Amino acid sequence: MKEDRRVFSLIEITQSLRSVIERKYNSTYWIKAEIAKLNFYPRSGHCYPEIVEKVNNKVQAQIRCTIWGSNYQKINEEFLKTVGEPLKEGTNILFRASISFHPVYGLSLNIVEVEPSFTLGEMAREKQKTINKLQEENLYEKNKKNVIALLPSRIAIISVETSKGYNDFLKILNNYPRKFSIKHNLFPAILQGEKAVETVTAQLREINKQSDNFDAIAIIRGGGGDIGLNCYDSYQMAKEVATSPLPVITGIGHSTNETVVEMIAWENKITPTDVAYFIIQKFEDFYSRLEKCKKSLIFNSEKYVNNEKNTIKHLWGIISAHTSNKIQYQQYHITNIYKNIKNKSLELIKHQKTSLSNIAEKILQSPVKQIYGRQSELILYNKLINSLTKKQIKIEKDKVNILKNRTEQLNPEKVLERGYSITLCNNKRITSTDSVKPGDTIKTILHKGKMTSIIKTK
Amino acid sequence: MTKSIKYSQAIEELENIVNDIENENISLDDLTEKLKRASFLIKTCKKALFNTEKEVNSILNEMNEESNEEDT
Amino acid sequence: MTKSIKYSQAIEELENIVNDIENENISLDDLTEKLKRASFLIKTCKKALFNTEKEVNSILNEMNEESNEEDT
Amino acid sequence: MTKSIKYSQAIEELENIVNDIENENISLDDLTEKLKRASFLIKTCKKALFNTEKEVNSILNEMNEESNEEDT
Amino acid sequence: MTKSIKYSQAIEELENIVNDIENENISLDDLTEKLKRASFLIKTCKKALFNTEKEVNSILNEMNEESNEEDT
Amino acid sequence: MTKSIKYSQAIEELENIVNDIENENISLDDLTEKLKRASFLIKTCKKALFNTEKEVNSILNEMNEESNEEDT
Amino acid sequence: MTKSIKYSQAIEELENIVNDIENENISLDDLTEKLKRASFLIKTCKKALFNTEKEVNSILNEMNEESNEEDT
């Protein structure tokens, strides 16, 4: 042992640490971390969670915490109320804590307050991550694409025998008045909390192996309230549901947001009762289709026969009516023809009479007209001859008169009457003194008497 | 005039006479003769017309009577 | 003058005489003769005309009377 | 008239006569003859019409009686 | 009438006769003959109609009785 | 009727007859024959209907009885 | 072939028959046969609805055989 060595007692050291830490970290701090182990002691009511921070799933920091019984109850209630889950391992939380050092128990964080909304956000992020992954892998719609049997008569049920939901489901099926042939096998599993993912996934795998024996899978839960449902947001369980060759019907029964499993299930009916009714409805649908067919057959077969009876009656009605009409029409037609023949014949005779009497009338009138024409022609000739004859006589008369006048003018007696005389020389009429010489004897003829003279001079 | 002179011939002769007179183709010496002929022809035609009229009227009357009988 | 001289011949002779007198120198004795002949011919023609007119009128009157009789 | 003259021929002949008279294609000398012929033809046609009418009526009546018998 | 004249042919012939008379395609000389033929055809048709009517009625009555039996 | 005429054929033939009668494609001469045929076809159809109705009723009654058993 | 496929085929066949009868797409001659088939199909389907699996299987086999027989 060396002299210069300073040796402290453990108490000294731990007290020194304690005073340094208490001096240095004299406030409270907001810290986010994951609960690795809850370490709740129900008897004392105290809780000593181990909290860690992981990077790539490796623990990078770890510390022990304390939530005193008086705080824990309040914190947990508030957390449950907001998040829908109690504080439990694997939950990321945001909390306020003071840092303390105890000589016996060492360093620990004393949690005085937890912020539930942080956890809620973290969970929503996780849920969205699951959805995104399913969508990326084309699994999101996969189960919905399954075709459910027309009569889903063999149902694989994932539930717990003791659960209220399962019992409700059975009650509906068993008490339904129509005894449909619906058969069901129970595949027990834990339906909420941390172990649910594992057990439910395992049973899904089991059912899928013998999928030929079933028509549908029903995941039924009920009576557990809204707590511990975030297992249904887990990628692991959701993937198993999505890839099942059978249609999965969920009846998990809660009032908060739809979980991922419900979202991707073939059908989400929420309550187990609804799932039962849903299956029954398929049978009812089929039943009513049958009944509808039956009713239609009864109604329409009779109607068909009756229609045919009416058709025949109708056809016969037309045939007999037309036949009678035809005969009546022909009778009428013949009567018409007779009337026509009668009228036309009489008309023809009448027309002939008229044209004959027209001809007769023309003949009666024409000769008389002609005779009148001839008579007036004769009168015309008569008048013409009359006037022409008279005219000719007058012309002849005029001619004779003209000749008479001319003759009279040529007679010398007329000239002599007015005192003229005719002188003759040698018995020739002289008209000039050139034809005589003095001494010639000339004879002068006067109107009354003649005389002879001798010319003395010229 | 004998019956051998037809009405139509008589009218033709009359027309010729009228023409001759009109065109002074007849001497006064022949005028009287021609006029006498014309007078004769006109008389003849009138007689013929008169006779025809009588005959026609008798035929027409007969026809009329008949048709009246039938019509009544 | 015998009846043998026709009106038409008489008119012709008369016209010749008048023409002769008017156009030729005839001796006074001939002239007197010619004028006498002309005077005779004129008389003859007038007689003939007179007779013919009488006859014609009588024929025409007869014709007219007949047609008047028939017309009335 | 012999039965050998058909009504239609008679009517045709009559129409021709009417045309001839109307267009004065007939001399007065033939008028009486034509008129006599026309008169004869008209008589013939009337007789034929009268007989036909009687026969027609008798046939029609017979037809009518029969149809009445059956109708009643 | 022999059975060889069908009703429809008879009616057609009758209609032709009516047309001929209407359009005066028949001379008066043929009218009587045509009418006699028409009379004969009408008689024939009426007989045929009468027989058909009897037969038709008997079939209709028979059928009516049957359907009455069935309806009651 | 032999079983060889089917109801549907009978109906088709009847409809053709109706068409023919309606469109007056049938002369009076053929009317009786067509009516007889129609009458025969109607009788045939009625018989077929009667039999079918009996059979149909028996099948329907059977169906009704069965479902009543199950529902109770 | 699974059972449920058979059910769907059966009800589809049934509904086709029902449609055919409703719309009168079948002749009366086939009505009885179709109705018998429908009755059988209804019976079969009802058994599928209500009975145990074993019974259903035997009926389905029977149905299948029958339809095969009919198809051939």
Q: What this model shows, in words?
A:
The complex is a heteroheptamer, with one copy of chain A (458 residues) and six copies of chain B (72 residues). Chain A contains nine helices and 14 strands. Chain A has helices at 10-24, 69-83, 116-136, 164-175, 194-209, 235-243, 260-264, 272-410, 413-417, and strands spanning 28-37, 50-55, 58-66, 92-102, 106-115, 154-159, 183-188, 216-220, 248-251, 267-268, 422-425, 428-429, 441-445, 450-454. Chain A has a five-stranded mixed beta barrel with strand order 1-2-3-5-4. In chain A, strand 6 (154-159), helix 4 and strand 7 (183-188) form a beta-alpha-beta unit. The relative contact order of chain A is 0.06. The mean pLDDT of chain A is 89. Helix content of chain B is 83%, strand content 0%. Chain B starts with 6 loop residues before the first helix and ends with a helix. Chains in contact: A-B, A-C, A-D, A-E, A-F, A-G, B-C, B-D, D-E, E-F, F-G. The interface between A and E is medium-sized, with 20 and 24 residues.
Number of helices of chain B: 2
Number of strands of chain B: 0
pLDDT below 50 for ≥5 consecutive residues: which ranges of chain B? none
Rg result of chain B: 19 Å
Provide the structure class of chain B. Answer: mainly alpha
Q: Outline of chain B, from the CA principal axes?
A: rod-shaped
What value does the Rg of chain A take, in angstroms?
80 Å
List the helices and strands and how they pair.
The complex is a heteroheptamer, with one copy of chain A (458 residues) and six copies of chain B (72 residues).
Chain A: H1 10-24, E1 28-37, E2 50-55, E3 58-66, H2 69-83, E4 92-102, E5 106-115, H3 116-136, E6 154-159, H4 164-175, E7 183-188, H5 194-209, E8 216-220, H6 235-243, E9 248-251, H7 260-264, E10 267-268, H8 272-410, H9 413-417, E11 422-425, E12 428-429, E13 441-445, E14 450-454
Parallel strand pairs in A: 3-5, 6-7, 6-8, 8-9, 9-10
Antiparallel strand pairs in A: 1-2, 1-4, 2-3, 4-5, 11-12, 11-13, 13-14
Chain B: H1 7-22, H2 28-71
Helix pairs in contact in B: 1-2
